[in-house]
Automatic annotation (TrEMBL), chain B:
Pfam families the record matches: BPD_transp_1
UniProt key word Transmembrane: yes
Topological category with respect to the lipid bilayer: Multi-pass membrane protein
Cited InterPro entries: BP-dep_ABC_trans_perm, MetI-like, MetI-like_sf
Any GO BP: transmembrane transport
Organism of this sequence: Brachybacterium avium
Residues of the ABC transmembrane type-1 domain: 87-274
Protein name (Swiss-Prot/TrEMBL): Sugar ABC transporter permease
Localization of this protein: Cell membrane
SUPFAM superfamilies: MetI-like
Transmembrane segments: 27-49, 91-110, 122-143, 149-175, 196-221, 253-273
């Protein structure tokens, strides 16, 4: 092979030796430089913009205004703080329901049964389906007059609900859609964790007389803890950043009463509707810090957390 | 296990309890499984049914499940507003973004896995945490100034931002589970380290690459926010094109549902065929703890 056939090593040979010696960085650098640029540049730029009064056209001149944007964002009780609360409520609500339901479904599908593969494929569909399609589909289903949701309720004699058309029911309805979309993902992650638990441990506990609940609570769940954490992290990251569902169902600004306006929607609105780049950038930096803090809280117990 | 169980004394009861519950439990479990599947599949079935209904039938509560299927929604969608172009755009962007992400991501994941580059890996994976919109604002600002907004290049670039972390994450856990001896054996056989990677490890990691590729394609295909801002009239991808239907004067539910079915179909086909890969990609790293 590459070992010398001729006498002295030529330049080509020396070059290939150099490549092999430095393959660690040769392999890793392109992806790292690409992402680092894509991260460092936007954050630096956002930080810079957040200190200016950039507004209007992207070419218009801008002046340095210091922390003025941050002050006006943090004192914005009409749009910003409600958006923060909604982001938290949406994420916490969706996460709690998805974990509880996902765990139940994972336990239900755990032991082999006929058609297990088909069941898994079926529950795979909600979260691989295009989010825009999912959002459109639920808009039709929740349509107050012609939607299936109210028709379904009427079979049980339950009066029609306003769902997405009333500001007070909008956010809970959207949480419900998120739960429909992503509970299967949580279930499949937990299921993968469950299959690594050896049956012997369970069997030993069963022989020791532990009932199903005790086996779950003191054996299965502790063994599953790392997997649960992965599911929580992945879902928390994505739920905090939810955009498609909210934008497609409620439009810019999260509806006429901003009832679905989370931080992501708020920043998008400020940027692309009002072209208020300076203010939007300040909000973005705060949003970003918030996510980092939450991620830090979720991962700080996990050594070398890989995400 | 160090777990102590409080009900140790009840041990003799266990074998007697077993036959009684085996009769009821499978039935209850079967019913619950069917119920779960229905909950997750029925809304999608509703979408497909609506796409074959006229708008009159969609409004008719008596025609929930029994109706005369029509194809007019589909002919509308494809006749209307060059929908074929949007299908092509989605494929084109997803293919390039997936290919380039794998090209950069696979070797990076290999190096990070072999040389334990935890901190470097974190740089790449940080992109997973950062809100996409934080990328969008500055990039829009710069690309609008350069007059590049609306081209395929910007779209592909923005999608790669999402796909590279996914590829690296999946491939890292794949390479982590590959025995080191493989590479050593190849070196003993006279291959250079890079040769060993290209000729031995890369062919063996095809399942991992398939996993990363399928998931990357799906993520790119489904992406909405980046395409919403960075695409032009001719480079619009499907999610944006479908969303645009809504802004027309009245909501044509039949056409919208037909459009969403067309958009979802490729993903459903991929999901059914590549079920194994999607699940393993999704749970990459999860089971290691």
């Amino acid at each position: 092979m590459a070992t010398t056939v001729q006498g002295a090593p030529g330049t080509r040979e020396r070059f290939s030796q150099w490549l092999n010696a430095h393959r660690k960085w040769l392999f890793a650098a392109p992806a790292m430089i690409f992402t680092a640029l894509l991260i460092a540049f936007p954050i630096g730029w956002t930080l810079y913009l957040s200190l200016t009064d950039a507004k209007g056209s992207v070419r218009s001149p801008k002046g340095f205004v210091g922390i003025e944007n941050y002050l006006s964002i943090l004192s914005d009780l009409n749009r910003f703080w409600p958006a923060v609360l909604r982001t938290g409520a949406f994420t916490a609500g969706a996460l709690a329901l998805e974990l509880a339901l996902g765990m139940m479904i994972a336990l239900l599908l755990w032991r082999p049964f006929r058609g297990q593969r088909w069941a898994r494929t079926a529950i795979l569909l909600p979260f691989v389906a295009t989010p825009v399609a999912v959002a459109m589909m639920w808009r039709l289903i929740f349509e107050p007059n012609i939607g299936f949701a109210n028709r379904f309720l009427s079979w049980f004699g339950i009066p029609a609900q306003p769902w997405l058309s009333d500001p007070t029911t909008t956010l809970p309805t959207l949480v419900l859609v998120d739960v429909w979309e992503f509970t299967p993902m949580v279930a499949l992650i937990l299921l993968a964790g469950l299959t690594t638990i050896s049956e012997d441990v369970e069997e030993a506990a069963r022989i020791d007389g532990a009932n199903a609940w005790q086996r779950f609570w003191s054996i299965t769940l502790p063994l599953l803890k790392p997997v649960v954490l992965v599911a929580v992290l992945l879902r928390a990251i994505d739920a905090l950043k939810t955009f498609d569902l909210l934008y497609v169902t409620k439009g810019q600004g999260g509806g006429s009463f901003h009832e679905a306006e989370t931080l992501n929607i708020f920043v998008y609105d400020r940027t692309f509707k009002y072209n208020d780049y300076g203010l939007a950038s300040a909000a973005l930096i705060i949003f970003f810090l918030l996510i980092l803090v939450i991620m830090w809280f979720l991962t700080f117990r996990r050594r070398g957390a890989k995400l | 296990m160090t777990t102590t169980l409080p009900t140790r004394s009840r041990a003799p009861l266990a074998p007697r309890k077993k036959p009684a519950r085996t009769k009821v439990y499978p039935v209850v479990r079967g019913i619950l499984i069917v119920l779960v599947i229905l909950v997750f599949v029925l809304p999608l079935a509703w979408m497909v049914m609506a796409s074959f209904k006229t708008n009159v039938d969609i409004n008719d509560t008596s025609k929930s499940f029994i109706f005369d299927p029509v194809l007019s929604n589909y002919t509308n969608v494809f006749g209307n507003a060059n929908y074929g172009q949007f299908v092509f755009n989605s494929f084109w962007v997803a293919l390039w973004a997936t290919g380039l992400s794998l090209l950069l991501g696979v070797p990076a994941a290999f190096a990070m896995s072999r040389f334990n580059m935890q901190k470097s890996a974190l740089t790449v994976l940080l992109a997973r945490i950062i809100p996409g919109i934080s990328l969008l604002v500055p990039w829009y600002y710069v690309f609008a100034n350069l007059g590049l907004v609306g081209g395929y290049g910007v779209l592909i670039l923005s999608h790669m931002f999402v796909l590279i972390p996914i590829s690296v994450y999946i491939m890292m856990s794949f390479f982590d589970s590959m025995p080191l001896e493989l590479e050593e054996a190849a070196l003993v056989d006279g291959l250079t380290p890079i040769g060993a990677f290209l000729r031995i490890l890369l062919p063996l990691s095809v399942p991992g690459i398939a996993t990363a590729g399928i998931l990357s394609f799906i993520f790119s295909w489904n992406n909405f926010m980046f395409a919403l801002v960075l695409s032009g009239a001719n480079t619009k991808t499907l999610p944006v094109a479908v969303f645009d239907f809504v802004s027309y004067a009245s909501i044509d539910w039949g056409a919208i549902m037909a459009a969403t079915v067309v958009m979802t179909l490729p993903i459903v086909v991929i999901a059914v065929i590549g079920q194994k890969y999607i699940v393993s990609g999704l749970t990459a790293g999860a089971t290691k703890g």
